[in-house]
Amino acid sequence: AATGPAPHLKRAGGTATVKTMLLEWCRARTRGYQNVDVQNFSGSWGSGLAFCALLHSFFPDTFDYGSLDPGARRHNFALAFATAEERAGCAQLLEVEDMVRLPVPDAKCVYTYLQELYRCLVAKGLVKTKKR
């Protein structure tokens, strides 16, 4: 059986396949959100809006996505991480200050956080996975 932060993403093919699947899942969940274009685990997440869009796609009643400003990075990260913790039970593995200090987020940190968020959403029954 698969173990680790996102066991439901585990498929034959190793880490690269899991990363690709997680990136595709993020892209699909955020498609159509203004100012969001998920292409990678670093620069695509720099404004905080991709995190907000991903969470808004699951919890649309939590905040008004349309009112968010791409330049308000600190606010966007804080909103996303608080929403993930409160609504999905996802540990805040990323610090808002670290995200704001870096012009481009660290890809490994973003990837790890998104794995944990995915795992939490699966645990809450909000993401359906194939039974094996």
TrEMBL record:
Residues 16-122 form the Calponin-homology (CH) domain. Keywords: Coiled coil, Phosphoprotein. Belongs to the smoothelin family. It comes from the Eukaryota. The keyword Transmembrane helix does not apply. Pfam families: CH (PF00307). This is SMTL1 protein. PANTHER family: CALPONIN HOMOLOGY DOMAIN-CONTAINING PROTEIN DDB_G0272472-RELATED, SMOOTHELIN-LIKE PROTEIN 1. The gene is Smtnl1.
